[in-house]
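Quick one: co-fold with 5'-O-[(L-methionyl)-sulphamoyl]adenosine.
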Amino acid sequence: MEKYYLTTAIDYVNGAPHIGHAYEKILTDIIAKHYSQRCDDVFFLTGTDEHGIKIQKTAAAQGKTPKELCDENSQKFKEAWKALDIDYTKFIRTTDDYHEKAVQHIFKKLYEQGDIYKHSYEGLYCSGCECFLNPKDLTEDGLCPDHLKKPEVVSEENYFFKLTKYKDAIIKHIKEHPDFILPEFRANEVLHQLEEIQDISVSRAKSNVQWGIDVLGDEDQSIYVWIDALSNYITAIGYNTENASDDFKKYWPVDVHVIGKDILKFHSIYWPAFLMALDLPLPKHIFAHGWITIDETKMSKSLGNVVSPTSVLENFNMEHPDAFRYYMASSAPCGRDGNYSDEDFKEKVNAHLANSMGNLLNRTLSMLVKYFDGEVKAEFKAENPLGKKALGTVQIVKNHFDNFEIAEAAQEIISLVDATNKYVQDNAPWTLAKEEKMVECGQVLTNVLDIMCIIASLIYPYCPNIAKDMARQLSFDLSTKLDDLTADNIKVGKLIEKEDIKPVFLRLDSELADKSAKK
Ligand code: MSP
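Sure, here it is.
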């Protein structure tokens, strides 16, 4: 694998980031960190989507200019991602100058080659979706089914994109590439939507939408937000219609666009059509994740149940975001909806990260100090009965990641932790020590520590801070690539002093956790 390029959806900046936005960025960051353990060149793109009627209206309601609103909220997204240890390579804002210019040229090219034409149109526009809706998709009361708002009747002369010209090619591509849309069950929905597609409006009258990129040579029209937004995936790596940058040549086609299920149509129908019109290769995968509810209820401003990711970190006095990252990433099977609740969060991370994984390391290192003064002797190195399972887990985890089964991969890692705990129980090194079978006792402890190195490596994408703490206590090099892992990781010699043993994760409700957070 030479490079891995992955992207998130870019978020609308009409509000601050919530836990749903965070879910997607955490998933993508975990995928990025996993592939960085398999390849040296990972490019992770995220950003904010800043034009359109929704932003224009929100800014007006708050007595701000759209630019002021965008600057303020875009910054909040950046701060939230920092708090969550989201290590993106690049953050694009659709108000960035280079992006706006590139979008204008993309539009011009499509117009000049006849893929875009002018047409008078009347339709129902939902500003929540930023798109025209088909009357047959509305609720009985004539509302947008997603936003439960009445769409606006818009009668304008707009530019249209010849989506219908690409219909057959897109159907063919989806059918010939079963891993183009993941999880696979979503592909049928898309094929169904494709049956009914029509050409789409790709501009709005400036009289109605001022906050958008101007159509070159037609100052009465602004470019439709979805052309603007989708193009970020290529403009960010230096695409322009004249000549492609080195980065563009290196990274395109993208390996995966990570998006929510609600915007799959835009990514698997509109975007491939635009790319075909630009004569560019299509994305390798589009992975649509499910939605996060709060206490089993859809998040909404009117219900007042919108949860910000940073408030969770603050409420639980967390030193780092690992537990939250782990919980969010394992909250739903691939592509299905998940839920966040404070109680479940606490219970799950205490059980998995503190009781199972953290304690295992802590107990084992403590025994090594108690019985052997922290030293691993040469005779402790023996055939490791857990080795095969642990290396098998590495392969299974890789396969899950190749299918974007992030929660399933986490489950595998915890199964390895459980199997290692069982091995300790079954072999009772404390009894071996009592019986003065010291070599056997040392072998059991060393076998466990060897496997803990593999666990540290596998958990790293989810819990980077915990993994670093584990690796430090194991003197293990966390930059080891997954394919270079072996069952023999612990070096013979002094491993650790008593005072260097630290719990890697304190139970969320423990007094210790409380004290350490207050420090
Ligand atoms: N701006 C567009 C995307 C353009 S991509 C070229 C948009 N923005 S959004 O802010 O509404 O959503 C951004 C991402 O967050 C989407 O992938 C969306 O599915 C995701 N989520 C928004 N709310 C969510 C949940 N409650 N749960 C999980 N993800 C959700 O759409």
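If it helps, DSSP finds 19 helices and 18 strands in the chain.
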